Amino acid sequence: MPPVQELIWFGLALVVAGSVSGFLAGLFGIGGGAILVPVFYQMFGLVGVPEAVRMHVAVGTSLAIIVPTSIRSFLAHKKRGAVDMDLLRQWVIAVPVGVVVASLIVAAISSAGLRTIFACIAVVLGIRMLLNRENWRLGADLPGNPWRAMVGAFIGMLSALMGIGGGVLNNTFMTMFGRPVHQAVATSAGVGVLISVPGLIGYVWAGWGETGLPPFSTGFVNWLTVALVIPLTLICAPLGVNAAHAMSKRQMEIAFGIFMLVVAARFFVSLA
Question: Which end of the chain has fewer CB within 10 Å, C or N?
């Protein structure tokens, strides 16, 4: 059992992580996972969760928390009429299929492998948003099927491996095909619902029977952490939505890019 002081810091870190992740869920449409996963990884290490399952539990728990957060963010954005509902309807099957593939990978991949995936994708997306070169655009509008369905499955797979709600990938996809960043952010909240629900089920299955899991865990999902963090994310998500609609396109791109690079740096340090 770690010292009481360390447990207190663990609890405080969860409070901060929950508040910030809820705000970011509304601001960027990312579900908050990009900040929850690195914080959970460090905090689970503090309380003695073995390295072999620590990253898996961090990712699985993040996806469980994203379920209510993404639903609340999606409803708030939908109320403002900013969500591309046609795209979401076309991805109802494609995105969960990608999540199922990710669940199969999670059952075999190492902790370092998950961290590497997270950090590398974060760097690419962060640089893209910071530079924002117009010649990076791939078209004036989103491609049709079957390419659109394939992209949805790919976003679902990578997001489930990273423990995020899909916003970091969907934002890039939509903006590179000429969609406004505010619409991309709003739609990403809906994508988060399509990823987090099957992702939660997949991580429970992938971690079923594993040894070394923290108390109150089902598979790779720790319900004690979920119970502590969810109330804070639900409270703070609408604040992020309001901030998103008050910012300019370029301000959101710069903020998002810096955020992703900071997250990537944290994971590369953990791999050293």
Answer: C
Q: State the pLDDT at residue 267.
A: 76
The pLDDT of 246-268, averaged and rounded, is 78
Closest to 194 measured CA to CA, from 226, 222, 168, 159: 159
Angle at 136 between CA 120 and CA 182, to 5 degrees: 85
Confidence (pLDDT) at 205:
93
* Residues paired with residue 221 on neighbouring β-strands, in sequence order: 218
User: How many CB atoms are closer than 10 A to CB 245?
Assistant: 16
Rounded to 10 degrees, what is the CA torsion of 55, 60, 63, 65? -100
Count: domains in the chain: 1
Whether residue 26 has pLDDT greater than 80: no
User: Phi first, then psi: what are they for 28, rounded to 5°?
Assistant: -110, -5
pLDDT per residue over 78-131, tens digit each? 888 888 899 999 999 999 999 999 989 988 888 888 888 888 888 887 887 788
Distance of CA 133 to the CA centre of its chain: 25
Q: Which domain holds residue 200?
A: 4-271
Residue found under tokens 């319900």: 223
From residue 62, alpha-carbon distances to 176, 196, 252, 253 in Å are 27, 9, 23, 24
pLDDT of the residue at 12: 76
- Residues contacting residue 61 through CB under 8 Å, at least 6 positions apart: 36, 40, 220, 221, 222, 225, 226
In this structure, are residues 152 and 190 in contact, taking their beta carbons and an 8 Å threshold? no
Count of CB atoms within 10 A of residue 260's CB? 25
Which residues partner with 218 through β-bridges? 221
